[in-house]
Amino acid sequence: MTKRFLRSLLDEASRPFNGNGHFAYHYSRGKLSSDSIFREILKRGLFPAEGRYLDLGCGQGSLFAWLLAARKLYEAGHWPKDWPAAPKPQHLHGIELMQKDVDRAARAFGADHPVVRIEQGDMTKADFGKADVVTILDALHYFDHAHQKDVLKRIRAALPPGGLFLTRVGDASAGLPYHLCNWVDHAVTFVRGHRLPRLYCRPLAEWVALLQSLGFSVETDPMNEGKPFANIMLVCRVPAAA
Ligand SMILES: C[S@@+](CC[C@H](N)C(=O)[O-])C[C@H]1O[C@@H](n2cnc3c(N)ncnc32)[C@H](O)[C@@H]1O
Known about the structure:
Blueprint: H1 3-14, H2 22-34, H3 36-43, E1 50-56, H4 62-75, E2 88-96, H5 99-109, E3 116-120, E4 133-137, H6 145-158, E5 164-170, H7 176-191, H8 204-213, E6 217-222, E7 231-237
Helix pairs in contact: 1-2, 1-4
């Protein structure tokens, strides 16, 4: 995989946010370039070839822009030989609490995009419908433990056998890296215009036990891109025969 390819992917994924205000463009571009989870999703072929994807706490839709850009480059034959085919999402449905993010998403993708639909909503209350892949990237810790359990339970119910839930959490048992992580989270949330939030975290073992108790098989993988944080990617699958 060349630097040139990653640059093209980043340019394509950032394009919808261009002309949508300084913040929208630089937020997505910065996030997609520096956060390794986006690359890993494609490189590891984590998502199925086709399907309905639901992103909870989707912000302005950076993940969707990334997936659409990946598919476009793949179809144009501009794709690393050692990466699996880019997925071709049939529906990209996002639910985001903050209206400002939803408005930025609407400007980026357009109101009548054939694949993308991002709506304002609170994932602790919203109906998830049915999906083949559900993602929550760095948003589960914004509400309390009882709501976390309920959201995870409803995600499990929304997924078919073989379905995937991909999330990233902080490991509250990781000591200093975890506290650093939380400090940065507070700062970024504040800069994005929110009040300083209370964060509801759990040790990694507790996240895994909770997800397993709901019927997921869980793989864990640190996802910090060289930063001294305690972020863990959780790849949670509904057993195919369930
Ligand atoms: C750290 S940001 C990550 C945004 C996005 N996942 C990304 O990767 O760019 C967390 C997002 O979760 C949203 N959020 C927090 N609580 C939520 C809730 N109860 N329902 C829906 N969205 C929520 C926040 O407004 C914020 O946009």
